[in-house]
User: What shape does this take?
Amino acid sequence: MSNKPIENPHKRHYGFGYMESQTIALPAYVCILLITYLSLFILPCQANSKEETVILTLDEAIAIALRDNREVLLNQEKLHQAKLEIEEAKSAFLPEINLNSTAARSRGLYRKDITNYSFQAGMKQYLYRGGKSVNTLKQARDEENVQAAVFDRAISDVILRVKGAFFAISLAKEFTRLNKTIFENAREHFETASSRYKKGEAAESDLLKAQYSVTSSQSLYEESIHQQESTEALLKNILYLEENAAVEIKGDFDYTQREVAIDQAILKALKMRPEIREYESRINADKASVEIAKAGDRPDIYASFDYYSRSTTSLTFSPSKGWQDYNLAGFTLSWPIFDGWATKYKVEEAINNLRQSQIIQAQGRADIATQVKESYLSLKSAISKLKPQEEKSKVYADNLKVTQERYKEGIASELDLKDAGLALLISQFNQKQAGYDYLLAEAKLDNAMGAR
Assistant: This one.
């Protein structure tokens, strides 16, 4: 038995001495302060230090993008502004009402300083402005249609970007998993080659090749991890998620092959694309702008009514007081005769803008047709790759079954079995990539045709 003295379990050493352990009761207000401090500072910091995981389906990701994406929100505000400009244009058809009141004190003119008061109320209603008011309202409505088309185009583009990023994340995860398996397989080959080299059964060149395979596969694995992080960052940027949020996607990306006639696709695009509505509305707005410019050479006619009430004095030097009320009603015609050719050049400028819009429309329609053709060919190319990849996966699956049987019989090694499994995994990845290529090509074709 040791001669070491047994310490008192109720004692706690601090420094060179010790203290008896005691239960100390803290005041209530101290406990409240401690709890408040923990809840306000310590616990939130610990919670924020952990990454928030966001699990999204494709539909949820699209919904978040349409709700929070800044490009969509900006175009939504511009559309609201265009609607307000319509209401502003309507004000030209309503009367103008003005009230004026004045108090003026005269000094030194009469023997006694006096104060004059005046009050005026007027109403003015334009009856004709050369077509300016009507065409200004028409132009505002056409500009709203333009902005509505731009807004729809922004929504379609964001949806396409979300789908592309979503598919890219899914494919990047599969690619990372594949490269990890390849890296592990390469290390096993290296270990086998190293063991055979030590026994004199393999040349040094075989060992060097195996080592190179490990190095290159490790590099590809690390690169695939970076690609996965990059695709996740892209999706978070589109959805405007927090930087520390971890994105997890879910959903089966099943697809059904569809056949689309190129002529029907082009006709649908020329009917459904938001740009078509944008071009047409822009041309109509420019036509209204031409009429607005022409109104500068036309007369303005308006009716007016003015009521006056003011205090007056007599024409003598003896001040006297009194009120005089009267009103004026009438019509006014104002017709500009010469303005230095300003209206002439405004009209020519407006006509030039109209011609530019018509050229942009013709070019835009041609670009849309070209885009549809390119998307259509990409879809056909993606479809052509689906069947071969599917058949190839079946071949490698059958090869794996054969290898498994040979492994059971002792003919094939465990490494041969893993190589066959890896070959099947690579083939399945290529099949999934072909499927994702098809889904992305289909989404681009839908976008080109104006469908969402």
Remarks:
- Residues 11-49 form one domain.
- The CA atoms of residues 286 and 352 lie 9 Å apart.
- DSSP finds nine helices and eight strands in the chain.
- The first strand starts at residue 11 and ends at 14.
